[in-house]
Amino acid sequence: MKLENANILITGGTLGIGHATAKLLIEHGANVAITGRDEKRTHKAARDIGALPITADVANPDDVKRTFKTFLNEYGKLDALINNAGIGTRKLLEELTVEDFQKVYSVNVFGAAMMGARAAEIFKKQKHGNIINIGSTAALKGYEGGSVYASSKAALRSMTQSWQAELRKYNVRVSLINPSEVTTAFGQEDRQERESQPNKLRGEEIAWAIKSALQMDDRGFIPEHSVWATNPF
């Protein structure tokens, strides 16, 4: 896909991976909208990089509908959806509640699915499009305290494979990018970005992987791509 003048929607684009990706794609000529739940943060983040801000929560079906309506009113068509919005919690097995699963799954699984479903409607009609789901290496191997988050990303991984089976015949490419640990605001109560460390991944590395997957000629696609820090120890 050519990035020049491509119309791309990124959920959770105010910080971290989403913001770094939006910035990189805009620098290469794409038209990008970012979503975020906090109106002030979303508008500031968009203003800083020249994106279209959409204040929305992917866990809210009405917000999902409004997101696509706003996007299409602005750009007319959609070329790529990047399902980046995600939350997590870390709890030992005996500490877990049903509410822990409901909260995380509402964003990481249900929200991603509803965004993907709406994008699929558009892409099937126009016979092309791209969906990139931001997963996690936690989906490949669980960890202590990871019952909720790791299983939500495993669900997203399985959904990605199902979407690939459904949408390839419509020339729609669906990819999964699995970051390992990235120094973002993810998991931070104050929603402040963690300081970059030379042995840890940044949002920029994941943005590069996303950009590369999108830029591949439309005749091919990357089903799944994991990104690890070279030497995190």
Automatic annotation (TrEMBL):
Give the SUPFAM superfamilies listed for this entry.
Answer: NAD(P)-binding Rossmann-fold domains
Q: Which domain of life is it from?
A: Bacteria
One annotated GO molecular function: oxidoreductase activity
Keywords for this protein: Oxidoreductase
Looking at the Swiss-Prot or TrEMBL record, what is one Pfam family this protein matches?
A: adh_short
Q: Does the keyword Oxidoreductase apply?
A: yes
InterPro entries named in the record = KR_dom, NAD(P)-bd_dom_sf, Sc_DH/Rdtase_CS, SDR_fam
Q: Which residues form the Ketoreductase domain?
A: 6-180
What family does the entry list?
A: Belongs to the short-chain dehydrogenases/reductases (SDR) family.
Q: What is this protein called?
A: SDR family oxidoreductase
